Amino acid sequence: MSMSTNDQDAGASASRRSRTPTQRSPFGSHPRRTHALATLALASAGVLLLAACGSATSASPKARGVALRGGTATFAMNHGDQFNWILPLPNEASYEPYQQNTEYSMWRPLYFDGNGASPTIDQAESLAYPPVWSGNDRTVTVHLKPRRWSDGKPVTTRDVRFFFDLFEANKSQIATYLPGDLPDDVASISYPSATTFVIHLKAPVNPTWFDDNELTF
């Protein structure tokens, strides 16, 4: 689940496609959200890292800038490129590296993939505590950390549910969708509390593979 955060801030916005009564989704349904989350995302986005410039005759060690809360981030683009997509679900027409760089800077994933040089989940940067597997690797329980949106409201499973509903309703238009993977492999999702949700899969999976590939959205 991609969320925009600035350490502990987040923002999201998208439209939902209607579903006929005969198309019952395993993700359930919920009232339409009223937050202007895209605006909040843009207001909170941006960390600009500045590198020190060395002289022409000597190499300069790499310098890391200071992380800032808020502000403006500037991204370079190739000549002729047009930036036209900011949502965390990339479509085929806008699946370009420069747009992904911008999106990933604004939307924090549920689990942050990559921990320095290690190809593992960075638990400290993730929005949830480590997932808990059960039921012969067919059930995974996720507990959200106490993170907040840029307007100060807490991130809850209502936001997670909104993302899953959006993904399931528009999967054929999402560039990263593969038939058989998320959301096709999900039997149902339950939300027992504001900070806990449970994914019930149709068949057992390798937990490490699922964590790294389907929970790092």
Shape by Cα distribution: globular
- Indicate the low-confidence ranges by residue numbers: 3-24, 28-61
Largest sheet: 4 strands, antiparallel
Helix content: 10-25%
How far from one another are the termini? 4 Å
Strand content: 5-15%
Strand order of the largest sheet: 5-6-8-7
Mean pLDDT: 73
The number of helical elements comes to 4
Succession of helices and strands:
EHHEEEEEHEEH
- Total number of strands: 8
Radius of gyration of CA atoms, rounded to a whole number: 19 Å
Secondary-structure-based class equals: alpha+beta
Entry summary:
The protein is an alpha+beta fold and 217 residues long.
Describe the model.
18% of the residues lie in helices and 15% in strands. It is of the alpha+beta class and 217 residues long. The chain has a four-stranded antiparallel sheet with strand order 5-6-8-7, with no helix packed on it. Strand 3 and strand 4 form a beta hairpin. 23% of the residues are buried.
Would you spell out the secondary-structure blueprint of this structure?
Elements: E1 2-3, H1 37-44, H2 97-106, E2 108-109, E3 112-115, E4 118-122, E5 132-134, E6 139-143, H3 157-169, E7 186-190, E8 196-201, H4 207-214
Antiparallel strand pairs: 1-2, 3-4, 5-6, 6-8, 7-8
Defining key terms:
single chain, 217 residues, alpha+beta, four-stranded antiparallel beta sheet, two-stranded antiparallel sheet, 4 helices, 18% helix, 15% strand
